[in-house]
Structure formats: C-alpha cells, structure tokens
C-alpha cells in the first residue's frame, strides 16, 4: 500500500498542475483586464445562482400553484356541466366560465381525444405542472395543449355524453412575467459593470502614467510626472521620483568628477606634448610622441565609456543624416559604403550619444572590412539599424564576449592599433540607455552584422 499510494496521489497532482497551467495561459495578462475579471466573475456567478434558484424554485412553485388553480377551475366547470342537465344551450356554463373564470367553454359532441400535442421546450414546466394537477383534480380523461397560438392553453375533457373544450390564457397557469426579473437583473449587472469599469480605469491610469514615466526616463527622455491615484500607487510614484532624483544627482556628480579628471589629465598630456615639441628630433622623440598620442586616444575612450553621455538632452535626430556623414568618412578611407532606408529615419534620442554609437560600429567595420552597408528600418514601433561589413566576422561563441569592456578578441592586436576594447561596450551601453540593445550576427555581405534596436 505504501508503494502504490504515491502513484495514486500523483495523478490528481498532475491533473491539477495541467489545469492550473491551462488556466494561466488563458488568463488576461493586463492588470486592468484581470481586475475587471475579478469584479465581473463574482457578479456573473451571483446572478447565475439567483437565476437558478428563481427558475428551479420560485418559478416552479408559482407555476405549480397557478396550474393547481386552473385545474380546480376545470374540475368546477365539469361539475357545473354535470349538475345542470336542464341547461340545454349551456348558456349558464359559458356565462360562468367567461365572467367568473375568464375562460371560453365549448360543448362538443362526444369524440375521441386528439393525440398528444407536441411538447415545447419553452413550456415544459407548464406541461408537467398542469398535467400533474389535472390528474389530481379531474378523474375523466383529458387532453392538454400548452402551445396554442395567441398565448392560449387548450384543455379537452372526455365525458360520458360530450367533450368539453376549454380555452384559457397561458398567464392563468404560467408565471409569464419572469422576463421582468431577468431584465432587471441584466440591467443591474450592466450598471454595476459600467461603474466598476469606470472606477477601475481611473485606478489603472496612474499606474500607466508611472510606467510611461519610468520607460521615458530609461530612454533618457524627460517627462513631467506627479504621483496620483490610490495611496499605494502614490507611494510607488513617490519612490520613483526619489529614485530619479538620486540617479540624476549621481550622474551629475560623476560628470563633475570626470570633468575634473579629464581636465587634469589633459593638462599633463599637453605638458608632455609641449616638452616633446621642444626636444630635438630623434627616433626616441618620435616613439614618445606616438605613445603620448595613443595615451590621449585611450584616455578619451575611457572617459567616454565612464561618462556614458548621461547629461545630454534628447532631441529629434535624423539617422539618415548621420549615415551620410559616416558614409563620407568611410569613402575617404577608400572603403565602399552604401545606405538603405525604409520608413521615417527620425527618432527622439541623444544625438551625440547615438552618433558615437554608430561611429564605433562603423569604425569596427572600417577596421576589418572593405565594404560597408548601413541600413535603417522603421516598422512603427522600433527603429532597427544594421551595420554590415565583409570582414572576417566573429565566431558565434565569442559574440557576447565582444561587448565586455577591455576585452580584445584578437590578442595579437596591440594597443598601437588604437583598439582599447571599449567600442562595442560603449555602443551597447548607449543603446540600452535608450531602451534598446545591440546584437551581433552574420552579415549578408559575409562578415559581421551589428543590429541596433531603438524603441520609438
């Protein structure tokens, strides 16, 4: 038993896990839709339970009571007919039926009862209730049709010498006003849902504003934001504003520090250059000048990586114009270049940062390729930029390493080549600061393709 028990318990657990996964996949993903579902589902379940109780209990009880009353009226008319033999024209019978019972009575010659009438699904409860009550009240054979046009019920009772035909409105034996209950229930549900939807929309709107402000701040764009909404949402908004202030203060302090460091180091490099300019020409002086120039280039690269252009304001930038500048620079180096643009190439970004990003990517392509192609595609949601070359490319397993700071794919390339290992790291940092990213893939030209995705 101890061996079988885990297997027996595993099946319900697996079934529940499958059901939970199935339900999770079909649940709405948005907070507004989920909250609305939380409001709608209890209302629908409550209204359904009330409707079920009404249909199966109250409506059934009322219908049986009304059917019992009609059965008593039918039995009374049968007794009146049998106890009035002198009423040859049945005048008093018809008068009593029309005046007191609101029914029509006709005395037909004795004849067999019609075959059972077809049962309507709409009046199945009435058929059951009326047939049951007539069986209790009328001992003679009878026939019932609850689907007569003009909302009538036809009842025939077979007597010894005649057949009584009675017509009555369906409302005498059937709770026909139940639609009023359902109508009020539907109207009340719609009003409740409308009010709930309005309140939920007002509660969700501050959260969407907060998300928009955080997204714009992540892209380096300034947007006016003031915490609003419920207490918890205002707390989250206030925390975001405080975090934004701290980040901006940290960026400002870092920029100030880097400006000081940059000024001091550039002063020293300028002194070195001045001292070398006053020295007589020699092979040692030439080598020292090359080292100082390389030191200056590396310093600029390190400062650019550390600075990250966080203090630059965003503005509408034409990527096509930047492509033209990079193409002209590439062609000056004797390298073929082409440009392809699909859609509007304008986007709100930090212009100098994006220019540095593209310059770093094109610089890598210039270093290793003989042919370069620049392309931009605007699909309405994202501006995708491609920089293709026909160089040797980068192996798949080492493409992610290429974005690591100070990482050199080719160890044989020394620092004399001006490669500090920061070009792709700076480019990815700039792309992610705008809410996008950079990926590397194989180029249609045979070399490397650098793809930049920037959200619009």
From TrEMBL:
Swiss-Prot/TrEMBL keywords: ATP-binding, Cell inner membrane, Cell membrane, Kinase, Membrane, Nucleotide-binding, Phosphoprotein, Transferase, Transmembrane, Transmembrane helix, Two-component regulatory system
UniProt subcellular location: Cell inner membrane
Root EC class: transferase
Domain Histidine kinase, first and last residues per copy: 260-456
Protein name as it appears in the record: histidine kinase
UniProt cross-references to InterPro entries, sorted A to Z: 2C_sensor_his_kinase, HAMP_dom, HATPase_C_sf, HATPase_dom, His_kinase_dom, HisK_dim/P_dom, HisK_dim/P_sf, Sig_transdc_His_kin-like_C
PROSITE patterns (alphabetical): HAMP (PS50885), HIS_KIN (PS50109)
């Amino acid at each position: 038993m101890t061996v079988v028990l885990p297997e027996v318990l595993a099946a319900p657990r697996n079934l529940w896990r499958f059901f939970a996964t199935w339900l999770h996949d079909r649940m709405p993903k948005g907070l507004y839709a989920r909250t609305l579902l939380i409001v709608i589902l209890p209302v629908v379940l409550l209204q359904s339970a009330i409707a079920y109780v009404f249909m199966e209990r109250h409506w059934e009880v009322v219908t049986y009571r009304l059917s019992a009353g009609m059965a008593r009226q039918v039995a009374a008319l049968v007794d009146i007919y049998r106890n009035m033999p002198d009423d040859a024209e049945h005048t008093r019978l018809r008068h009593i039926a029309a005046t007191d019972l609101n029914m029509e009575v006709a005395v037909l010659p004795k004849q067999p009862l019609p075959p059972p009438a077809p049962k309507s699904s709409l009046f199945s409860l009435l058929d059951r209730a009326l047939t049951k009550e007539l069986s209790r009240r009328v001992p003679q054979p009878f026939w019932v049709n609850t689907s007569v046009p003009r909302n009538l019920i036809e009842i025939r009772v077979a007597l010894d010498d005649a057949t009584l035909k009675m017509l009555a409105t369906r409302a005498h034996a059937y709770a026909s006003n139940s639609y009023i209950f359902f109508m009020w229930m539907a109207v009340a549900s719609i009003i409740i849902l409308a009010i709930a939807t309005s309140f939920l929309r007002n509660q969700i709107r501050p959260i969407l504003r907060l998300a928009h402000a955080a997204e714009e701040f992540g892209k380096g764009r300034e947007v006016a934001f003031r915490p609003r909404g419920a207490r918890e949402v205002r707390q989250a908004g206030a925390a975001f504003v405080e975090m934004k202030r701290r980040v901006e203060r940290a960026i400002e302090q870092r920029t100030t520090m880097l400006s000081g460091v940059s000024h001091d180091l550039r002063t020293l490099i300028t002194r070195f250059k001045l001292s070398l300019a006053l020295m007589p020409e020699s092979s040692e002086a030439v080598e020292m000048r090359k080292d100082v120039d390389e030191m200056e280039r590396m310093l600029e690269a390190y400062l650019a990586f550390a600075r990250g252009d966080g203090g630059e304001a965003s503005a509408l930038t034409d990527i096509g114009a930047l492509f033209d500048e990079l193409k002209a620079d590439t062609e000056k180096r004797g390298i073929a270049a082409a440009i392809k643009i699909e859609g509007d190439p304008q986007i709100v970004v930090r212009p100098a940062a994006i220019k540095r990003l593209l310059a770093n990517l094109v610089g890598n392509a210039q270093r290793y390729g003989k042919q370069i192609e620049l392309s931009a595609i605007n699909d309405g949601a994202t501006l995708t930029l491609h920089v293709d070359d026909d160089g040797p490319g980068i192996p798949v397993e080492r493409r992610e390493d290429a974005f690591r700071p100070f990482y050199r794919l080719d160890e044989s390339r020394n620092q004399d080549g001006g490669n500090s290992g920061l070009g792709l790291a700076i480019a990815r940092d700039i792309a992610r600061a705008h809410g996008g990213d950079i990926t590397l893939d194989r180029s249609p030209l045979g070399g490397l393709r650098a793809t930049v995705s920037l959200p619009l």
